Amino acid sequence: MTSDDTTLDASAPWLEVDALIDDPRTRIVVCCGSGGVGKTTTAAALGVRAAERGRKVVVLTIDPARRLAQSMGISELDNVPRPVKGVDEAAGGELHAMMLDMKRTFDEIVEGHADAERARAILENPFYQSLSAGFAGTQEYMAMEKLGQLRAGDAWDLIVVDTPPSRSALDFLDAPKRLGSFLDGKFIRVLMAPAKVGGRAGMKFLNVGMSMMTGTLSKLMGGQLLRDVQTFVAAMDTMFGGFRTRADATYRLLQAPGTAFLVVAAPERDALREAAYFVERLAAEQMPLAGLVLNRVHGSGAAQLSAERALAAAEALTEDLADRAPEDAEEAPQGADDDPNSPPGEAGSPLAENLGPDGIVDLADGKTGSRTPGGPSPAAAEHATSPSAPAAQLAAGLLRLHAERMQVLARERRTRDRFTALHPEVPVAEVAALPGDVHDLAGLRAIGDRLTLRPGATDD
């Protein structure tokens, strides 16, 4: 453990991100995790870093927010990979980015596996339009379908996938199988049974079945729904087996050695609980886990000053102010070198007399000041080491803010340690929080640099 006790515990292996993205055997990196933990930013940062280290990269995002396009300087993202300008290609790499268009991907499947007349009949079918636009699991299935297309095309040697924001790993891992099962020939034969039965009984059976499948389909009612389903099935009867086959092939692709899953989380209890579930589910499904990316980890440049000592020092300053208040009211001496109006921290100001080398008031011993070697005698320094009221109030406030920051650090450390205790085999990379939002390539590079910092190192 380092002196500031804020970096990874020695028992947690370090995630070597550069080694992962530099390895030519790594062909797919899947960033997964709960919503709001920085998956999109992590995926984009990995893409930029890998491209500038010589890989030909495409980043596929499924996030409906267009932050990825904005951060990469692209006016818009769509279902076609777009080149990202401003990336350093000196090492021979390049970067493209795209955003999944769920319906367009489904349309491409139809167009690629049916003749023109049959494809038109399918694309114009109301049942198909509801299915392709809003059926549960369609987004995740189409993300995996697009991943399979990109991998088969072999135009890029690294594909970085930003998965949909899901409340559970089950949504992402099970959706391809769920949609494949829905489009399986056996299910479709059951679906077509009411048409053969006919009459009100058949319609009742169909409506009950539809209501169990999805709320989207409940918008289409009555005999028109039955006719739409019949037309849809008649047009797609030769394609259903292909959906199941592709879903199975994509699932196997996710299990292949060239795929690496990165679980992204924030140093918060709920996010790390979800991350632990992802880790366990990936292991159960034999998916190759590369490690955990812990985003937005707070730090401090004065971690040697604990929260307890900072609060004690602030309290000492407050008490000193209270004791001096009556005396200061009667007599307020002011010298040329002791100007209470001088900005805190400038030479000659009372606060500057008490600043340590790290810019923190030197109150480590819990007293209001300390004598430096070569300084004035204790008697002569008694007044100089007592900061003026404004400076003391400022110092006390800063000390309390520092104490709050150290308490945040301690809480994050405890949360992280609970995860590493449960999963000591999982490599972890900690990404220090940036002072602002990431909105350009420079910010993505900064994230990439922090992704690869070893525990205890700094990015100065």
TrEMBL record:
Biased composition (Acidic residues): 328-340
Name under which the protein is recorded: ArsA family ATPase
PANTHER family: ANION TRANSPORTER ATPASE-RELATED, ARSENICAL PUMP-DRIVING ATPASE ARSENITE-TRANSLOCATING ATPASE
Residue ranges annotated for the ArsA/GET3 Anion-transporting ATPase-like domain, each copy included: 26-297
UniProt superkingdom: Bacteria
Organism: Streptomyces yunnanensis
UniProt-listed InterPro entries: ArsA/GET3_ATPase-like, ATPase_ArsA/GET3, P-loop_NTPase
Pfam family, one: ArsA_ATPase
Region (Disordered): 323-389
